[in-house]
Amino acid sequence: MKMLFGCRGCFRRTVPARRPAAILAFFLALQLPAAGQSVKAPSIPFATDNVALRKPVKSSHPLYGTQKAASLTDGLAGAWAHPLDQTLGNAFYFEIDLGRVHPIEHIAFRNRGDNLFPNRMSQLLVRLYEDPPETGAEPVWVGQHRPDGTPVPPGALDVLRATAGKGIFQGRYLRISTAVPKNHAPQLAEVEVHPPLNISCATLRADGREVPIGTSIRVPSGSQKIELGFQLPPLFHEGSMLFRFRLGNPKSPWLLSSGQTVEIPTPNPGSHVLEAQVRHSDGIWDQSVFRIPVEIPVPLTEQAWFRLTTAFLLLAAGMGVARYFIHRRLIRRVENLERAEALDRERARIAKDMHDVVGARLAQLSVLHEIALSGEAVPAETRTRLESLTQLARRAVSELDEVVWAVNPANDNLQSFANYLCHAASEYLEPLGIHVRHVVPEEIPEEPVSSKARHELFLAAKEALQNIVKHSGADRVQISFGLSDRALTLAISDNGRGLPSSTTGLEKDGLHNMQKRMTSVGGHFTARSAPGSGTTVEFSLPRTADLAG
């Protein structure tokens, strides 16, 4: 029976420390036998995929000392075996019967634990047979282990894969000899044969919902977590194996797990690959890797077509709202125009009635007064009163004419305003011996002016003319019209004595009234004067929109 002291390192590697029940069962199996009983090798209480474990081993020639060929497959690395005769060379071999033909992923050779003769486990010749070699069967695979002769570290496990030879890497019978004749070679502590281990993804849930698995996987958009269920190799059960997986790209880190089900956060949207790989019981990762494409779509709210559609709908909605308000604005504008047109018709009617009815009556009254005055028998006192009534009637007719002009919508333009002001100024000043000069542009556009704007401007100009008559002592007046892109300008200048250094009384009130009238229609008023050099008053109104009011 082998000593167990030399295999502590191997035993610690093979039996996981987290399984104390397995360790206890193992040591219970090592109880010493009673006298006369045969010793039965202990069973291995933990899962393994080593198909060579406890399989029959024979050697072509006797072994050194008490060494046994079976120590190569007993699962314990504390003993080793090599030929007794040091001159056999490649005529010696170990042969392991695996019981049936197995596909092989790798073969692991363990060196003895000390540092003696490390080169005896290099340059091995390994052959695999499907039929017994003694029948003359040819090997299905032939390869070499460490053909360069480099030594194996003490107690190390060295791996041989299919790429180290030629043929089909499978078989029932495994023969191990030395490719280069060496003394007491080959020398081995343990031989393990591991078949391929395949793992697959059996189930996938996204936020608790089952996701079908085919040649690829499509995870529902917006999922927060993924639950993966893996199908383990039949040699293992949950908790007895270790596998690793990753979902992402080849640079993503591997995640380790010993359970069949794992849960991970959903990666970023895009194309990914789910990979999974099993570790053999000897700690070597199987070279086969399960791979399946995984598509994680971009959430609906982040997809280009959705954003484009949303933008289009928002634009359409905005255009609809804008169209609605524009339509309402047009309706209001049409309503305002209709009301303005109705108001203009009413103003025209009022102006016509005032002219035809009130004006006619005042004119008739003036004529009757003149007829009464023509009589010779009219007393002097009565005549004076009749003359006053006649003058009053004439002034009423003149003032009524101004009101009719202001009310009539046909006069709501610059040309009508300029013509009327020039006519009214001449009619007012020339009978008083004051010469009037008009400076008017050759062409005055028929630009609309609101009734209020032209009426206020006319009254302000009229007050300026009255101030000239009452206070200036002038005999010449100039009325100038100016048009710029921004404003209409009206300037009234005289050659009188000018404004005094400080204005009081009616003069001050007159200037204040003119300023107030212009301010009420958004215009400006200025007065420039120097004693003895005349006075100029200037009125300005902004053009177009403000004039149309």
Can you walk through the features of this model?
The protein has 8 helices and 23 strands. Helix content is 32%, strand content 25%. It is rod-shaped, with a radius of gyration of 61 Å. Strand 10 and strand 11 form a beta hairpin. Strands 1-2-8-4-5-7 form a 6-stranded antiparallel sheet, with no helix packed on it. A 5-stranded mixed sheet has the order 12-18-17-14-15, with no helix packed on it. The chain folds into 4 domains: 190 residues, Sandwich (Jelly Rolls); 100 residues, Immunoglobulins (Immunoglobulin-like), CATH 2.60.40; 109 residues; 138 residues, Heat Shock Protein 90 (2-Layer Sandwich).
Q: How many structural domains can be distinguished in the coordinates?
A: 4
Which residues sit in consecutive blocks of at least 5 with pLDDT less than 50?
Answer: 1-45
Total strands: the figure is: 23
The CATH superfamily label of the largest domain reads: Galactose-binding domain-like
Number of helices: 8
What is the CATH topology classification name of the largest domain?
Answer: Jelly Rolls
CA-to-CA gap between the ends? 121 Å
Strand content: 15-25%
According to CATH, what is the class of the largest domain?
Answer: Mainly Beta
